[in-house]
Amino acid sequence: MLLLSLSLSHYSSNAADFCVADLEIGFQTPSGFPCKNPSFVTASDFKYSGLVTGGNTTNINKVSIIRAFVQQFPGLNGLGMGAGRLDIEPGGAISAHTHWYASEMIYVVEGTVTAGFVSGVATNTVYLNKLSKGEIMIFPQGLVHFQVNTGTETAVVLATYGSEDPGTQIISPALFGNNLPSLLVEKATNIDEAEVKKLKVLLGGSG
């Protein structure tokens, strides 16, 4: 009985300390993923090597985005933090986007980045900074923001978030990478229908 009591106490203690996501047995809910049985948790559940090297930047935006969210790093489950690595070639950009669940902070590891966000109030004020190696900028939760490499070398940026799954919506694909009729997009955005159709072709939309 004493051994059983000690065993249950140990299990409860671990469960209170962390909740490594068990991605195989459950779906994500508003409160996160189901917890992996603490008896099967190892030190490797709290380590992630995915940000060591950058990814492929051969794309229209000249960027690579590598995420360390709960889906890639299950140890983050329930801890309210996440990270990512951004590699941006000269002239490349992280397109305007939002994170509806978290604020973001970026740290420039290498290169030069011009970054900004647009306030959510009626004035739509833009807060813009040119960042060099070692500098940091924050983007408040839910506000549209972006990063552009305005330097001459590849920029490497570390991003951190106040959520293990901050939620992301990229503005241009949301508007033009869909099957909404172009005429309706024109009315919704005040952009000429012919230009809307060009953007739909570019971003894989239809209609």
From TrEMBL:
Binding site for Mn(2+): 97, 99, 104, 145
Binding annotation for oxalate: 99, 104
Domain of life: Eukaryota
InterPro entries: Cupin_1, Germin, RmlC-like_jellyroll, RmlC_Cupin_sf
One protein family per Pfam: Cupin_1
Keyword Signal set for record: yes
Signal peptide segment: 1-15
One GO MF term: manganese ion binding
Family of the protein in this entry: Belongs to the germin family.
Entry protein name: Germin-like protein
Source organism of the structure: Linum tenue
